[in-house]
Amino acid sequence: MVAQRITVNRIACDGHGLCAGVLPEMIKLDDWGYPIIEARGVPRELMEHARRAVDSCPMLALHLEDRR
Amino acid sequence: MTGAALLAGPDPRDGAEGFAAHTARLGALPSGRHGLIDTLERAGLRGRGGASFPTATKWRSVASRRGDSVVLVNGAEGEPLSQKDRVLMESRPHLILDGAVLAARATGARQIVHYIGAAHAGALAAMRRAINERPDAERRLMRLVEAPQRYVSGEETAAVHFVNDGTALPTALPPRPFERGVSGRPTLVQNVETLAYVALIARHGDAWFRAVGGGGSSGTALVTVSGAVPAASVHEVDGSAVIADAVNLAGGLTSDSDAVLLGGYFGSWVPATRAWALPLDVGALSKRGLSLGSGVIGVLASSDCGVEMSARIAMYLADESSRQCGPCTFGLRAIANAMRRVATMQAGVDDLAHVQRWAGLLPGRGACRHPDGAAIMVRSALQVFADDFSLHVREHRCIVPAAVARAA
Lengths: 68, 408
Ligand SMILES: Cc1cc2nc3c(=O)[nH]c(=O)nc-3n(C[C@H](O)[C@H](O)[C@H](O)COP(=O)(O)O)c2cc1C
Ligand code: SF4
Ligand code: SF4
Fold this sequence. Notes:
Oligomer: heterodimer
Number of strands of chain A: 4
Number of helices of chain A: 2
CATH class of chain A: Alpha Beta
Strand order of the largest sheet of chain B: 6-5-9-7-8
Structural class of chain A: alpha+beta
Radius of gyration of chain B: 21 Å
Bound molecules: flavin mononucleotide, iron/sulfur cluster
Largest interface: A-B, 13 and 15 residues
């Protein structure tokens, strides 16, 4: 299976930071509340949380993408 | 050292070379359909719009898409320290049009959009006239669109966005322009200087390109020299030239100088001691972690303070953010404000540390590379002007008294 990584549409994201609450292992917030996402692929044990983070983004700004 | 490829022929200051003279000097446009992309690859041509991306790779990705594509000729030239695209459009418009026609043939495009900075009146007039001189079959493919005078207008997705619906703001990726651009078609966005070189490589071949580079890897380049020189001016240099040569071509230094801004507002400050001997060659520069960017060589005059200059550029880039992405909108603004406090002797103890950390949070966190470019400039300033920054912060002092008044 190809590892997937989390990407964010920076224009759509409004910085409310829900995602960091759902997946703190991979998403931190900067000084203004915008996500800093780890570039590495999502490890298998976090996949479930990553999917939940993507689904919980109110702006539909988060995506799981096959790693390039 | 001085190259004569793009600007070979009549003196560029005499205005645009007409179609007849251009054809008489260089011969008719070769068909270019077969093997041109391979030739460009062997030549090693890279984009001249700032990112130095391999041209052949970009053409292939457009050519491999299904359906008609579009060529978008980028003559927006939003970089305040650059004039080279304008000089080229005003003096050799037919080289650019040749390159655009060849690009259209090679990528299967039936539309060529010339996207030219609205403020560049001379370039607009020259390009309009040149388009009208072309054979009907080519002219029918072409239209000219005036790019709004903002820094981000020339960013490739902003250019596509403006041509499509009149909004010159970058858009989120994907889709990239080569996937879906003008009118939803695969679109090749290419800088005018890059296209002009295509016109020459199609005629003279890749071996010629490598030879004309004077031993460098990138042919000749158009550079704009400004700052501590008699007047800002554009010159063509090959890869054997160093920054000192370019400065001499511009008339030599008018004052001492401590640093050079290489590449433009997205470029790096380089200490003068190191700068003078730097080769103006894309490959040689990238080995040193530097980039020719859009060919800007901004020489800091002794009457200017590097801290104040960098703060001013940071403020400009913050003002020019399209304010669509949080990290760019708020991060750049915070950096610019803190740098202004430093430049005006009002810095708090933490301001420098903050700027350093915030600059580290910019790269890769915008829809376009505006924040990435700004971060390069800011981090190089902190490094090259480290002593000046700490003098401003700790002792509220500047070694250039005249600059203090200007910063305020
Ligand atoms: C904020 C921003 C502004 C840009 N402005 C210009 C511009 O004015 N002209 C230009 O040719 N490229 C500009 N670029 C680069 C383009 O996005 C694109 O990479 C370039 O036109 C591609 O042509 P090239 O491969 O021939 O360099 C800009 C990029 C950014 C991020
Ligand atoms: S949840 Fe969505 S909108 Fe909110 S910060 Fe995360 S990515 Fe941005
Ligand atoms: S990164 Fe900055 S300039 Fe680029 S689209 Fe986002 S807000 Fe606009």
